[in-house]
Amino acid sequence: MLDYRLDEETEALRKVVREFALEVVAPQIGGFYERDEFPTDIVRQMGELGLFGLPFPEEYGGSGGDYFTLCVALEELARVDSSVAITLEAGVSLGAMPIFRFGTEEQKQQWLPRLCAGEALGAFGLTEAGGGSDAGATRTTARLEDGHWVVNGSKSFITNSGTELTELVIVTAVTGTKADGGKEISAIAVPSGTEGFAVGKRYSKVGWNASDTRELSFTDVRVPEANLVGERGRGYAQFLSILDEGRIAISALAVGLAQGCVDESLKYAGEREAFGQTIGKNQAVQFMIADMEVRASTARLAYYRAAEKMLRGEPFKREASIAKLYSSEMAMENARYAAQVHGGYGFMNEFPVGRFYRDAKILEIGEGTSEVQRMLIARSLGLG
């Protein structure tokens, strides 16, 4: 019989993160959002809580947990704010996880302890301006010269790439030509501050305003040959496997946003009075909030199912795509409903649902668009 109740340890973690989100993040994140400022001190406190080390072994400074515990933490953070949640998700899934999954023992010892402690952030440089969802269209190149990789090119929309905590970016680059004539794409770790590595200004974004997202450029950037992460020519394949896990994490984040819309709407509906009674007594508002709760609850089950299969070592690609697709679209719907419940206040950034609305859209785009998820699900069914 299925049992999706959290065990005692995970439930204790959930409560700690929930308390942190309400007491530390909620009172001040609106200001960071309005100033378009990265909340460095909040991120450091997340590190002190051990959130960046959740799915990593203790030997590398981690907490010895699993990927599902990370997802639970992401959900609770996103119930209050998605900027800090995506900072954690990208720092773990895209910054540290490739080193843990594919790096050498020397690379793990060098990078993971600080990444797990939240003392440093890592990023993953995959997307390029002309590529978008076509990550195989990489134009950035890296050639071996005197025991060093020489990297040239640029990357776009890279999260956690320019903060004062950022210590490295793992970059995908064309390192040669395969036997079939295709591109040989490898992953190479480039430390921050390396000569020729330039970090652009923060993007002016619709949402995730307290998250760091930038363009990167590489001009004859030289790093040691030992900075190759994983096998040469396997960088793209490695990323795809990392992305499958990341989709579960993004689904958890989307569920958090969807649940946050329920939380805020319940609170507002119980306080706001119109025509002599609180608006929560109106059936139209009751039905909107009931539908929001249905979406959040169902989306949660989807990412729980995907995480369950992943942790059992079973194929989970289809379930990850289902969870990511459904939860991101339901987050968008809940944000729209929550703004409607709040009326004019739902259009104000000072109210959390205004930020939720702005933050929700990227969930249907980042780490694989909704169209890509539908394509992957169709393929898994034998179509296409």
UniProtKB/TrEMBL annotation:
Its cofactor is FAD. It holds the Pfam family Acyl-CoA_dh_1. It is an enzyme of class 1 (oxidoreductase). InterPro entries: Acyl-CoA_DH_CS, Acyl-CoA_Oxase/DH_mid-dom, Acyl-CoA_Oxase/DH_mid-dom_sf, AcylCo_DH-like_C, AcylCo_DH/oxidase_C, AcylCoA_DH/ox_N, AcylCoA_DH/ox_N_sf, AcylCoA_DH/oxidase_NM_dom_sf. Residues 123-221 form the Acyl-CoA oxidase/dehydrogenase middle domain. PROSITE patterns: ACYL_COA_DH_1, ACYL_COA_DH_2. Keywords: FAD, Flavoprotein, Oxidoreductase. Residues 233-381 form the Acyl-CoA dehydrogenase/oxidase C-terminal domain. The keyword Protein transport does not apply. Residues 8-119 form the Acyl-CoA dehydrogenase/oxidase N-terminal domain. Its EC number is 1.3.8.1. PANTHER family: ACYL-COA DEHYDROGENASE, ISOVALERYL-COA DEHYDROGENASE, MITOCHONDRIAL-RELATED. Belongs to the acyl-CoA dehydrogenase family. This is Butyryl-CoA dehydrogenase. It comes from Modestobacter italicus (strain DSM 44449 / CECT 9708 / BC 501).
